[in-house]
Amino acid sequence: MTQMTYAVTGVASGIGAELARLLNTQGHRVIGFDIQESRENIDRFIPLDLNDVASIKNAAAAINEPLNGLCNNAGLPPREGLEEAILQVNFLGTRAFTNAMLPHLCNGASIVNMASRAGHGWREGVDQVKRFACLTNRSQLAQFIKAEQLDATRCYNLTKEAIILWTVAETEAMLSKGLRINSLSPGGIATGILGDFQKAFGAQMAKNVARAGRPGAPKEIAEIAAFVLSPASNWLKGTDIAIDGGMGAFNQSDTMGLNHLRLDAGNTA
To answer: What whole-number distance in Å separates Cα of residue 199 and Cα of residue 205?
Structure first.
């Protein structure tokens, strides 16, 4: 296997830590970014605070080698009191960091953006996403939150909707640069911040996890992220992949009343 060099943000815990471990096990070089220092399964660690413009610039400037891929995994959960930081870290900072990293991505490199099943409401929120995407710096966030009447949960959902639509919007431009970009949408993953999601989404999340049988494991998301980063997924371009144990399908079937299509519904040939 040819050794690749991959950059992974949010590498100190959860999905990011599992992705670093997996890539390292596969023989690849991993450059890890996080606000919290971590050296495990990482060939080089670079501090990164996506809530700070200077940190974003400094982290990208520290790269001195070509990269075969970038996984934008770092993010904040829907926690009350973090509204501005959620908008900045999960989208504005991620977008700025990606832009700063483009000169380091070699031809054929893959960008993987970590979205969420919570972002699948983008069809209803697209106008708000467009207004949000017009913001250019953190100083605008307080007024935006006030004007849009956002709480922490809506801030989180909005950032994940924005990640999905930004990925779609960038696809053609990235292809012209010889790059690929895709997003992943995990749902109900057993990481250290699972409690934040249980609090934010309440009974609906509990119902979804019960129907799926269990929450997902970080390793299960990392395995798919590693594949989408790799050249083996070359024809995946501009798509969002739901990794939710069937939760999205359950809800879609309920909403559309699809039970009569099931094999056990009595419609036999």
So the answer is: 9
For residue 109, count CB atoms less than 10 angstroms from its CB and return exposed for 0-12, middle for 13-18, buried for 19 or more. Answer: buried
**CA 74, CA 58: separation in Å to the nearest integer?**
17
Residue 160: which residues within 8 A CB-CB, separation 6 or more?
90, 115, 116, 118, 119, 185
Residues 45 and 126: their CA atoms lie apart, in Å, by: 36
Give kind and range of the element (H or E) at residue 54. helix 53-61
CATH topology of domain 5-256: Rossmann fold (3.40.50)
* pTM to 2 decimal places: 0.94
Query: Quick one: residue 194, left, alpha or beta (phi over 0 = left, psi -120 to 50 = alpha)?
Result: alpha
List the strands of the sheet with 240-243, edge to edge. Answer: 44-47, 29-34, 5-9, 67-72, 105-114, 180-186, 240-243
Task: Give backbone dihedrals phi and psi of 9, rounded to 5 degrees, phi first.
Answer: -95, 160
Could you list the mean pLDDT of each consecutive 10-residue stretch along the chain, which spans 269 residues? Answer: 94 97 98 95 97 98 98 96 98 98 98 96 96 95 98 97 98 98 94 84 87 93 98 98 93 90 71
